[in-house]
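Give me the 3D structure for DUF4235 domain-containing protein.
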Amino acid sequence: MASKGAKIAYRPIGLIGGILAGTLSGIVFKQIWKQIADEEEAPDALQSEYSMREVVLAAALQGAIFAATKAAIDRAGARGFTRLTGAWPGD
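Predicted structure for DUF4235 domain-containing protein (91 residues):
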């Protein structure tokens, strides 16, 4: 179980990890979207030239990539924090 001090000390690491996850997942999503849709940009919900299916598929894919990337970065950050401090930052 993490102490309150460990949770507070981990906050900056978690914040940086979230920013990194957002940036990295955006890059990964763009590359995947180019491959599967043969387009530079994913459809936006307010662009009328795209179907509901295309918009929702793009959003779901983007969300899944972000969630997986964030989980991987959060877990790696927590493990590194534990190695340095001996305390797990969650729980």
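The CA atoms of residues 78 and 89 lie 6 Å apart. Let me know if you want a second pass.
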